[in-house]
Amino acid sequence: MNETNRFVGDPDLLVRMEQNLAEHACHLHPHVKGAGVTETGDLLIADSGLDDDT
Prior knowledge:
Layout: H1 13-25, E1 36-40, E2 43-47
Antiparallel strand pairs: 1-2
């Protein structure tokens, strides 16, 4: 199989991409004072704990 096309047609690709992004977004949060991660169903909130409005 051609390396560039190995994921074409993979029905789980978008789900796995989303899970990978979520893991990267909250990787350090458990180790940072004031930061936290909340998971509820299909929602993941990665709170940095920084006092800002973004």
